[in-house]
Write a structure and sequence with these properties.
This protein has 169 residues and is α/β, with parallel strands linked by helices. It has helices spanning 30-44, 120-132, 159-168, and strands at residues 17-22, 50-53, 62-67, 85-87, 94-98, 103-104, 118-119. Bound molecules: ligand TQI and zinc ion (2 copies). Ca(2+) 3 binds at residues 78-79, 98, 101.
């Protein structure tokens, strides 16, 4: 079953619109930005919310960046596998990914043979759930279940995820 964070925090955006921005220093290719756009779209389809990319990282509601090791927020990343990413409950908006992972991006052949590679969209869909206010679910098939196998693509929201987010929004 789905869960919320203590106190059930949620966003209350004007015009149901949340902005997201990418850390400029990461210089992400369009394929990576598109992967995040697709992940946001999955949640937009089942809520009244919409997600709009902004070029102004520092004032974006949701701030996405890849970092390695200690990056100044007290939750250092740990290299390949282990912690892949972290995101915080509303209305924090911090969305950090471990730059040391071999991220699988659709249409990108370079990670095809790396066994420990992790599917970026799968992690993004899960972390966006946290950013919007969902905790972990006990339903194994759900996006918000706290385990995923390496290389697996798990991006389709299940009834449990949809019910949870629709209670909030
Ligand atoms: N990062 C953890 C996670 O997102 C961080 C975390 C642990 C957390 N407990 C939390 C975040 C409670 C919010 C609330 O779950 S992770 C998965 C999954 C991770 C794990 O790097 O371990 C995914 C990132 F679900 F597969 F285990 C993405 Cl999909
Ligand atoms: Zn961080
Ligand atoms: Zn999680």
């Amino acid at each position: 079953h789905y869960a919320f964070f203590p106190g059930q925090p949620k966003w209350r955006p004007r015009n149901r619109r949340l902005t997201y921005g990418f850390l400029p220093q990461n210089n992400l290719p369009d394929t990576v930005k598109l992967t995040f756009a697709n992940a946001f779209k999955r949640w937009a389809e089942v809520t009244p919310l919409s997600f709009v990319e902004t070029e102004f990282y520092s004032t974006a509601d949701i701030r996405i960046g890849f970092f390695s090791g200690d990056h100044g927020d007290g939750e250092p990343f740990d290299g390949t596998l282990g912690t892949l990413a972290h995101a915080f409950s509303p209305p924090n908006g911090r969305f950090h990914l471990d730059g040391a992972e071999d991220w699988i991006v659709d249409g990108d052949a370079s990670t095809a043979t790396i066994k420990s590679a992790v599917d970026l969209e799968s992690v993004a869909v899960h972390e966006i759930g946290h950013l919007l206010g969902l905790g972990h679910s006990s339903v194994e098939e759900s996006i918000m279940y706290p385990t995923i196998s390496s290389r697996k693509k798990k991006v389709v929201l299940r009834d449990d995820d949809i019910q949870g987010i629709q209670v909030l929004y």
